[in-house]
Amino acid sequence: MLTGLSFGVIALLMVAGVLLDLALGEARRWHPLVGFGNLAMALERRLNRGGLRFWRGALAWTLAVLPLTAAATLLVMGSNAAQPWIWITHAVMLYFCLGLRSLRDHNLPIADALAQSDLPNARLLTARIVSRDTTSASEIELTKASAESLLENGNDAVFGTLFWFIVAGGPGAVLFRMANTLDAMWGYRTTRLLQFGCTAARIDDALNYIPARLTALSYVLLAPGLQGKLRAWQCWRTQAPAWSSPNAGPVMSSGAGALGVQLGGAAIYDGEIEHRPPLGEGLPATGADISRAWRLVARTTVLWLAVACAVAAWMEMVHA
């Protein structure tokens, strides 16, 4: 392992990080990712001007990510990896990078508001988690926005983070989440960010390539019944290529197929209708499907932890 830790320890630290996230949620003050976001905004304001914007964006990405990744690496690599405080440091880094409880806390209230036919509150809550216009959104449109966010961010905020934690421990999780954050902030195809954010978008695509497909496969495996699994697989294979994002397509199409609902389609961004490819198949999504999407993400988390622990136990038996 790149961390110097055994896989058994890595598996236990994964469980510890997820439990910390579920128990504590996001730090309300002094969250490292919030501070990193402020740094990213300052770098973008400073460097995204004049010519050579692609290279300025590459420089900004380097200045934002590499020093902090190096510091995280030095923090856990400077001593014997078997020391308990090293283990605790890895687990705390993972906790700060995970967003499983955040997904629940931001999306289930939308489902509750829709269940009470409180569209104004549901629109307000949905606007906090997506960039599309929710001013006059219907229940179906709000459900689509929330469910798609849950499915996609299940990969970004949970499974991609766990994957890179397996690869490189706490520093791997930190690197992934910083790269993902920069893509979320800079990776838009607007006049201002198209060239500047290109490096952030492409690096995030590369880091997410394997985790996204493992996430999509997990959604397929956890779809109910053989028919559900075949539907999720078919949606992944036929619908994902139509999406411009190489990673969001597989994750959201397989997830929508697993849920057996229709997602994707038209959405309003910056006052203009964007006609997006369809996702999934079945009945139009309703508010109750938000809770079903959350349960799919939660079960996938349990699956990943169970597989990691099972592999760790098998490795211990082999080397016993």
From TrEMBL:
GO terms for biological process: cobalamin biosynthetic process. The keyword Cell wall biogenesis/degradation does not apply. Keywords: Cell membrane, Cobalamin biosynthesis, Membrane, Transmembrane, Transmembrane helix. It is found in: Cell membrane. The keyword Transferase does not apply. Pfam families: CobD_Cbib. One of its GO terms (cellular component) is plasma membrane. Pathway: Cofactor biosynthesis; adenosylcobalamin biosynthesis. It comes from the Bacteria. The chain crosses the membrane at residues 58-78, 85-103, 157-176, 296-315. This is Cobalamin biosynthesis protein CobD.
